[in-house]
Amino acid sequence: MAAEKNEEEEQIVTPWEVAAEKGGKIDYDKLIDKFGCQRLDQSLIDRVARLTAAPPHVFLRRGVFFAHRDFNQVLDAYERGEKFYLYTGRGPSSEALHLGHLVPFMFTKYLQDAFKVPLVIQLTDDEKCMWKNLTVEESQRLARENAKDIIACGFDVSRTFIFSDFDYIGGSFYKNMVKIAQCVTYNKVVGIFGFSGEDHIGKVSFPPIQAAPSFPSSFPHLFSGKDSLRCLIPCAIDQDPYFRMTRDVAPRLGYHKPALIESSFFPALQGETGKMSASDPNSAIYVTDSAKDIKNKINRYAFSGGQDSVENHRKFGANLEVDIPFKYLGFFLEDDNELEHIRTEYGSGRMLTGEVKKRLTEVLTELVERHRRARAAVTDEMVDAFMAIRPLPNMFN
Amino acid sequence: MAITKEQLLTRLQELQIVFSKYEHPVVLTVEAQAKYVGNMKGALSKNLFLKDKKQRYYIVSALADTKVDLKVLSQRLGLGKGGVRMAPEEALSEILHVPLGCVTPFALVNESARHVSLLLDNGFKSQECFFFHPLSNDMSIAINAHDLDKFLISIGKAPAYVDLEATPTVGKGQPPDLASLVPSDAPVSADPPVKQESSKSLEKNHTSADKQPVIAAGAKPAKPSKTSTKEKPSGAVNTSSITYADTNKFVEEILEKTRTIVLSEIKEDDNIEKYREQLATIVSNNISKQLSMELKNLAIIFKNTAYTEGFKAGIHHQPKRM
Question: Cα angle vertex A309, ends A303, A315, to 5°?
Fold first, then answer.
């Protein structure tokens, strides 16, 4: 079968475009094969639970974060008493954040708390300025606004450094950017990212910017003298190309390769084949949605895997493969037992879609409420504190 | 709370004040405003928001053509040369509750502007009507002196018309002629209540940082009658402000959430029957499970807020004077 498919029909997964094979879903097994990363198996999850003396995060248990590179090495080092730091980021292209945007941050917060390690968060305002043709001021403004929602996810200010490219690039960070850039030929970067002769040089020179935070010397105010500190990067799997490039460069610069822990894509309300887009407010649940909005969106737009009539549903059960409410519960319903119960009851047809949607509405409303409350507590001064270039003396405690 | 443009217009109508209103795109300068209402009946005004060295504020409203010399004005007010300057941007929002480019006598309707002094160009008196912004830059309203006075009197301000271009000498034997227009009362502090809270909780932080709210382990499952409601502590806590580093509020909230869960667990009829001796363990386990996440979230907000307050104090810290 694989031999019959030609190049154009393959799924596309790049930092700027994600598209499944015609009319289908993303095939994650194929992706892992193609990219060359590893599956995150149960033994690793158990190991995390053991090392952190806490239950593993719901995203690990449900396979949301499902792939990795060198995560086992990070855990080996951790067991020996060698710490690491976390690095994640966001491209601030819009003010409105939806639940899909929160997923990597929720997971990163868990990692920060469970392993008690510091975190750097990069806001690529320069990237969005270039790719989305925003003005410099607008992208900087969005970066600060997004920072507030990110902080609201519950990061610990005494171990977190948030920075925007426009503010921070220079000094040691820039030195690393140049060193990285020297190791990547133009042809290579075109091959990895698909740039063309028409793309401006800003785009072509961007990848080292996203690579540089993987090296501790980019943050002399934090990690001075700790050149052998490992880096773990939680991200969505479409970011893998950046870090394949970075991992290739790292040994040549004398650093550990950054480790990765990667998530699958968050489905749009309309289903796996639908596209989540900032321009369609009904394709996602936003952190600014009211309880009423959430209820409406789920009831009206969430793609249901239930049958078209009650009799058929009782007979055949729901198609859990495509049912969005059930998938969303997989992400956000903490209780494994309850989820299992819904899986059997809904899958067999004893439970109806309405009930599943109702439960999802409760879960999401609670989540969004908590986020909104936390967001209300974030002041501009708090953003300044998180973004200040300052030492973090207790970052490993 | 700040008065809105709509509330102002309603108030003017209630006072039977005659005015014409024109909507236009947001304008930040007199020139821009002129593009939209320059041809309409009414003279354009320029409005300055000034501040003196003793934190007293003034609005100077003049016809667009009137020359206003701040040095002269400062002397006439008895503040010496260079005693007034343009007020900082934050004062616009904190005191007048208007955006940039929107200084207007109408802003005095706000409580926070109670002690702002208003100087009006006596040139207005000879105009049929003149334009001001009504609290937002996307509208201009034309009003005459008589009706403007009516409005000012309604908010307790005596209209003061001044020849702004006059340059009387000020010195021995010639007292500053506008001295009476300097606000006499201590100005209303522009700091919102939150800032007062912050300084209070900064002291409290020393003790609170050590106390880890240990709820899960310590919470004994209570018999329904036992839980006594804690009164809100001293009146020092300003209930209208929101500060997330208030230790009292923090603890109150934790106790409130714990109480709610304990009570709901105990009140479940089948729980009491079913579990009896194990009720204690069951309830305290549930408390841990349900509350743990919520309390951790509360605690991180508290920590981040306290750190931010300390950080801000740190960057404004002045070195010890020798």
Answer: 105
Considering only CB atoms, A385 lies closest to which of B300, B301, B307, namely B307
* Residue burial B147-180, b: 16+ Cβ < 10 Å; e: rest: bbbbbbeebebebeebebeeeeebeeeeebbbee
Q: How far is A382 from chain B (nearest CA, A)?
A: 5
Q: What is the pLDDT of residues A271-311, one digit of tens each?
A: 876 666 666 788 899 999 999 999 999 999 999 998 888 88
Spatial contact of B131 and B43, defined as CB atoms under 8 Å apart: yes
In 10 A of CB B25, how many CB atoms? 9
pTM: 0.66
B chain contacts of residue A390, beta-carbon cutoff 8 Å: 311
B41 near A CB under 8 A: no
Q: Is the ipTM of this complex over 0.90?
A: no
Instruction: Please indicate whether, in this complex, the C-beta atoms of A381 and B300 are within 8 angstroms of each other.
Output: no
Listed in sequence order, the residues at least 6 apart from A201 whose beta carbon sits closer than 8 Å to its beta carbon are none
pLDDT at A83 over 90: yes
How many Å lie between the alpha carbon of A386 and the closest alpha carbon of chain B?
A: 8
Q: What's the gap in Å between the CA of B38 and the closest CA on chain A?
A: 32
Q: How many CB atoms lie within 10 A of CB A192?
A: 18
Look at chain A and count its residues: 397
The residue among A47, A150, A66, A68 whose CA lies nearest residue A106 is: A150
The average confidence (pLDDT) of chain A is 92
Percent of chain A scoring above 70 in pLDDT: 96
Contact A146, A127 (CB under 8 A): no
Mutation target vs B (from A158, A382, A395; most B CBs, 10 A cutoff): A382
